[in-house]
Amino acid sequence: MPKLAAAPDRVNDFVVKFANVNGTGSASANSLIMKTIFRMGVPVTGKNYFPSNIQGLPTWYEIRVTRQGYAARAGRVDIMVAMNAETYAKDVREVASGGYLIYDATWPRSALLQRGDITVIGVPLAKMVNENFDGVRNRILLKNIAYAGLLAALLNLDLEVIDGLMRQNYGKKPKLLDSNTKALRLGYDYAKEHLSCPLPLRVEHMDKTRGHIMIDGNTAAGLGCVYAGATVGAWYPITPSTSLMDAFKGFCERYRVDSATGTRNYAVIQAEDELAAIGMVLGASWNGARAFTPTSGPGISLMNEFVGLAYYAEVPCVIFDVQRVGPSTGMPTRTQQSDIMLCAYASHGDTRHVLLFPANPEECFYMAVQAFDLAERLQTPVFVLSDLDIGMNDWMCRDLKWDDAYRPDRGKMLSAEELAGLDKFYRYVDRDDDAIPYRTLPGVNPKGAYFTRGSGHNQYGGYTEDSAEYQVVLDRLKRKFANAVKYVPRAELTGKGDNEIGILSVGSCDGAVREAIDALERQKLHLDYLRVRAFPFGSEVEKFLSSHKRIFVVEQNRDAQLRSLLTLETAVEKSKLKSILSYSGFPMSCEPIVDGIRAALAEEPRLSAVTTKSTR
Amino acid sequence: MSFINKPKVAHPSLPTNALGLTRRQYEGAMSTLCAGCGHDSITAAIIEACWGLDMRPEQLAKLSGIGCSSKTTAYFVSGAHGFNAVHGRMPSIASGANAANRELTYLGISGDGDSLSIGLGQLVHVIRRNVNMLYLIENNGVYGLTKGQFSASADIGTQAKKGDVNQTPPIDPVLLALSLGATFVARGFSGDKAQLVPLIQAGLRHNGFALIDVLSPCVTFNDHEGSTKSYTFMREHYHAAIEADFVPPAEEIAVDYPIGEAIPVQLHDGSRVVLRKLDASYDPTDRSAAYAFIEDKLKQKEFVTGLIHINESSTTEFHTLNKSSPVPLNRIPYEALSPGSAELDKLMGRYR
Lengths: 616, 352
Prior knowledge:
The complex is a heterodimer. By secondary structure, chain A is of the alpha/beta class. In chain A, 39% of the residues lie in helices and 20% in strands. Chain A folds into four domains: 10-202, Pyruvate-ferredoxin oxidoreductase, PFOR, domain III (Pyruvate-ferredoxin Oxidoreductase, domain 3, 3-Layer(aba) Sandwich); 215-398, Thiamin diphosphate (ThDP)-binding fold, Pyr/PP domains (Rossmann fold, 3-Layer(aba) Sandwich); 416-486, no CATH class; 492-613, Rossmann fold. In chain A, strands 10, 11, 12, 13, 14, 15, 16 and 22 form an eight-stranded mixed β-sheet that branches. A six-stranded mixed β-sheet of chain A has the order 3-4-2-5-6-7. A five-stranded mixed β-sheet of chain A has the order 19-21-20-23-24, with helices on both faces. In chain A, helix 1 (26-39) packs parallel to helix 4. By secondary structure, chain B is α/β, with parallel strands linked by helices. Chain B has one domain: Rossmann fold (3-Layer(aba) Sandwich). Helices cover 28% and strands 20% of the residues of chain B. Chain B contains eleven helices and twelve strands. Chain B has a ten-stranded mixed β-sheet, sandwiched between helices. In chain B, strands 5-6 form a two-stranded antiparallel sheet. The N and C termini of chain B lie far apart (67 Å). The chains are: A alpha/beta, B alpha/beta. At the A-B interface, strand 9, helix 7, helix 8, helix 9 and helix 10 of A face strand 2, helix 3, helix 5 and helix 11 of B. Strand 18 of chain A pairs parallel with strand 2 (81-84) of chain B, so a sheet runs across the interface.
């Protein structure tokens, strides 16, 4: 029996990481543990670090138990469940001093597993499972459940909660329920018998997850599309956006099929490529359906030409860009925020696009709905810039709520009656002096007919090569984009806004930034925080930029794309903006922010002093 | 087509269709193509076909890509919405538009460059997806707007205006469509309007994807000696194998066709195409036979025209496979699309 290190109690605040081989079914065991902790009322995050591969390559899953409810990756590992001999060396190195390493002791202990400052726990998992179960595949799957049982004992997980989850997962398959329960007990009983349970790092019941769910951003966004009333989705499969369309389709099968006739109130079209996917979205939108496409960076690159047409011919469309690591194919299963500039100015010629930046799955849901309203109100493409971390990982969010009074904002769309009352319809005339013209749908009234084109056109919709006529339309489009500020979500301010130093960030950096602010608070450094939620930037962004002496711009890319956009699109002095960048491909943790700000302030003692004095 | 702006006032003596509309009301903007362009004759045939079908102008949706041919959607049925997509991407616009509203009649106009080079991928997939539309290729073997480069339909040995001889084999859209299982494949010639009008009518009424490849000489860049897509060459080499008459449902009884040589094919909406075989060896309902026949004639430098293949029993039309609601998706009220707050509350249980 290994002697366990006498670590101080760390209740509901630690990280367990699972090192597995992909394609071995470890996901269900890992999510069982995460869900159990969540159901015990303890805030938790789950991050999946998986390869671009189906079977055989290393994969990791990281569960952070966080009583404070932080959403970011912790940046340390307290317990490593090392189930992949191939990555032992790396996995052992990663464990924080005083932490634990659990490995399968069926085979002789690897020399790689030596480290004096951590506790190494060997458990003959494969042996136990092989003695109790038949079938190669079955044994591989159940070994995962066995280590879940082991952890249940070590971490003090509530067995009743686990049983409830297992019944929910396998309730309809009694044989599976039996074998999984048995495997779980194998691990649990072994730990109880051979190890001193629980560890100082353990879980105890709390009441901090009531009214919350664990959901990934792609599922939430797909659900948002259903509630927005989208009927046409066109896409080309690409990681990490694929599950968004899977979710939309799944929800449509549940909510949009006529129970009597079996007919569908939706169409999901798997296109031949992203060029076609966006074309289908434009065709459907032009015809008055709410249509969208989910994609990722490489898909956006392909869609550029059509995006320009949509901008210039003013065809609404919604594009979800679940960002991944670029450039080129990059690292498809890693996260980044590196399409900000690509999307802001997508396509050739003078173009600027409305961007929404959700920070978590909850916002993915609401912003999906908003995106359709904005696209139709403004008659333009709207990009929702999520990322792999938000899109594919389970986040703890408040329950999603729906207001039944909601009706889609279809924008300025003329009905058959309105058209009949018109003398003559002109597609691109600014009748209301708000730079937004009226549109008509095909098939409604011959009076509404016009020609949608990406070639030079005048405000009457006619082809033109006349400079003045061309500029009337192009200048109106510029005004329209400026007016979009009135409709897009405002940036979110945390703090009173009267500190001299601020952090400005975007999207999934939010969790790390909030944690960093707490850490700096404890060190008597007070900062304001503004999270931009849309482009174009509103006056509140200008105000934040002008009212702070030093602004740290936190984002997940190499080239400081958000900072670039701020310098291009606001009046800010470039030198005020200092970048804190993370582009490892892993979700951001708070350390680089805390360290970056401390280092910068150390170089500027004057600012540091001011900050320390300020009170909140 | 029209080279001067004609007033839209119609003389009372002009014939009207069942909707009381004259042919003039199916015209569009003034053509800006070269005088004598084959495309303008196709435009005239489309106007005649739509007028003859008693189609409400707004019932039609006109779609195109980029190129001389793609400009022509502006020149007919001004009461219909038009969508001039980017180069080679009209099929995706058509697919999306059709998904959103299955009730409109979709007419896509494209060219050989737009369809067979830059847009080949989309053409192939719109055929495969069997989107209910008529896809008309105005095929002249040459890039007009960029001044005379060979297109992918240029025949081996054909000579460009500046003297280059094409040596790469052509892509024949008819053979391509046949090989992909298209359910309506036809070829016409812009110089033969009498043959073209019923083909267009039948193509518009066919339930599924219909392709008509219309050989349409380019008077500016491809009408010289040595070209295999000139008016002279066409007139000498086109082979009218199957004539098609389009018979609307109401007139069915009145139509009389000689027994033995005519094949009546009933279309989805009750109308009929009556095919008259001018070549006894040919069966337009047999896809493999049609393929072999066309390929054989092409080797002899003959362009077989007429309704080359028709299959009215296919069940792969996009909405049929999708089990789409009979009410077009763009007209389903929001109340029927949103699951509502109670369902959302219930759904939350799944994520705890």
